[in-house]
Specification:
Strand content of chain B: 25-35%
CATH class of the largest domain in chain A: Alpha Beta
Strand order of the largest sheet of chain B: 2-3-4-5-7
CATH topology of the largest domain in chain A: 60s Ribosomal Protein L30, Chain: A
Helix content of chain A: 25-40%
Largest sheet of chain B: 5 strands, mixed, barrel
Number of helices of chain B: 7
Distance between the termini of chain B: 37 Å
Oligomer: heterodimer
Shape of chain A: globular
Number of domains of chain A: 2
């Protein structure tokens, strides 16, 4: 058994969120540099360079890369041998979010009908997983909702097959067009059920940009989808070009014999993503 | 090369701009997004006085992040314009001449730009820290309870924009997409 003080968790997560708001992951920046070399549209190249310059400036000035500092989504993997002390872990994670967002934008309404701003960007969305061992690993997405708004979930019959899957992903990105701030990172969840397929698509966005699935048939699908999306012509910021998707990450889940649940979660060209281990 | 335009926009400026043009905008623009639009349009329906002028003015769809101490404004890039489509026609009818945001507009809004003589400009989404540098002054004008969604009067200088939809029906996004779309992946397959 290992004891972890939730006050230490609060401090670490607040720092993680503060840092992630102004510091984009290196794997994303490298993917963007590479995309800049592949882009044929001069305007598309210019947009990619501008976004890289913005990222460097935001990091140097410690100001957010994007004004939409997102909704905080936390994925918590807790070792089954961990014991939390010093308070409630759930409250500590919400406190961490409140602390971090004191200087970031408050983009959360507590009631989707009344639409009153919570004033401190809480609640964070927290997803729990119990794992072996005595570790604590927390990954955070500060998800911008321009891209979230253009994401989709749908339940299909198995007969749509891989062709139908590809069509749904392509249609989703085509409809999103410039709105989701391409170049995009496209998370695709396949399988599971209505509730878990969206989570699979979201978890796909936690992978380093351009990482390849270890399963060969999934890796092949990722590669085909990326090529198809980059033929749409949308390009950086929708101003035309051959780089619409930086990467497609596909995650599979076991599902029922009757269904093929499908989710596409888009991430914009400001993917705030970070992980800590305690 | 970019054309320099002054905000508010006069008729000649509106007519001179074409989809695809690059623009550097200097002058006064008004920050307003979802919740502020809803309130403005409701106030118009009730016949109330509005907290901002509309004729010839430019509305920027932005909800800035908080400013660092001493800074004019926090990061301030465009938000997705399409969400404002349901509120845009009444504003264009009252003479709003420029809209700044990102992303596609509805056919109704594009048509209204032609009917009323107005321009839809795009700023680069996600270039928010750099865009904030071109904002010289920010004043809270109305609806402070909406926090980042409050209406602000912004003085911008050489604010970099693209003309996305002009007053002649030109559409830069559609033209760009057609230029770079290739055979196997695009329209043929998805239609």
């Amino acid at each position: 058994m290992r004891t972890i003080d939730v006050r230490d968790v609060r401090q670490a997560v607040a720092e993680l969120l503060r840092h992630s708001a102004h510091s984009l992951p290196e794997d994303y920046l490298e993917a963007m540099r590479s995309a800049g070399r592949q882009e044929r549209s001069p305007l598309g190249q210019e947009v990619i360079e501008l976004l890289l310059e913005n990222a460097a400036y935001a990091e140097a000035e410690t100001i957010p890369t994007c004004q939409d500092t997102g909704m905080a989504i936390l994925f918590v993997e807790v070792g089954q041998d961990v014991h939390f002390s010093g308070g409630e872990i759930c409250a500590a994670l919400q406190d961490a979010t409140r602390d971090a967002y004191a200087d970031l934008r408050k983009s959360v309404v507590t009631d989707p009908l009344l639409r009153v701003n919570s004033g401190d960007n809480t609640p964070a969305l927290i997803h729990w997983e119990i794992v072996a061992g005595d570790g604590l690993r927390i990954s955070a997405l500060q998800k911008g909702f321009g891209a979230e708004l253009m994401s989709r979930v749908s339940m299909f019959p198995p007969a749509i097959g891989e062709e139908g899957i590809q069509q749904f992903v392509i249609d989703t990105v085509e409809q999103a067009g410039p709105n989701a701030c391409p170049p995009l990172i496209v998370g695709v969840g396949i399988g599971g059920s209505l509730d878990t397929v969206g989570m699979a698509a979201k978890k796909a966005l936690l992978r380093p940009v351009g990482s390849v699935s270890p399963q060969p048939h999934v890796a092949a699908l990722e590669s085909q989808l990326r090529d198809a999306l980059n033929e749409l012509g949308i390009g950086p910021q929708g101003l035309g070009g051959v780089v619409t998707a930086l990467a497609v990450h596909v995650e599979l889940l076991a599902t029922h014999i009757a269904a093929l649940p499908l989710a596409v979660n888009l991430n914009c060209s400001a993917p705030r993503r970070a992980t800590l281990e305690l | 090369m970019a054309t320099t335009v002054r905000a508010p926009l006069d008729d000649a400026a509106v007519k001179s701009l074409r989809a695809g043009d690059r623009v550097l905008m200097t002058g006064t623009v008004y920050a307003a997004r979802d919740a502020a639009h809803k309130r403005l349009v409701e106030a118009m329906r009730r016949g109330e006085e509005l907290p901002l002028p509309l004729a010839g003015q430019v509305i920027y769809y932005v909800g800035p992040a908080p400013a660092k101490p001493g800074a004019v404004i926090g990061p301030a890039g465009p938000t997705t314009s399409g969400r404002m489509d349901p509120y845009t026609l009444p504003l264009l009818e009252r003479g709003v001449a420029g809209l700044i945001g990102k992303g596609s507009r509805s056919d109704e809004v594009k048509q209204a730009l032609v009917t009323h003589g107005a321009v839809y400009f795009g700023a680069v989404g996600g270039a928010s820290a750099l865009l904030a540098r071109q904002i010289r002054r920010s004043r809270l004008l109305a609806y402070p309870d909406l926090l980042s969604e409050a209406i602000r009067e912004l003085e911008v200088e050489d604010f970099p924009l693209f003309v996305l939809n002009d007053c002649y029906g030109g559409d830069a996004y559609l033209a760009a997409r057609e230029t770079y779309r290739s055979g196997a992946g695009g329209s043929q397959r998805s239609r």
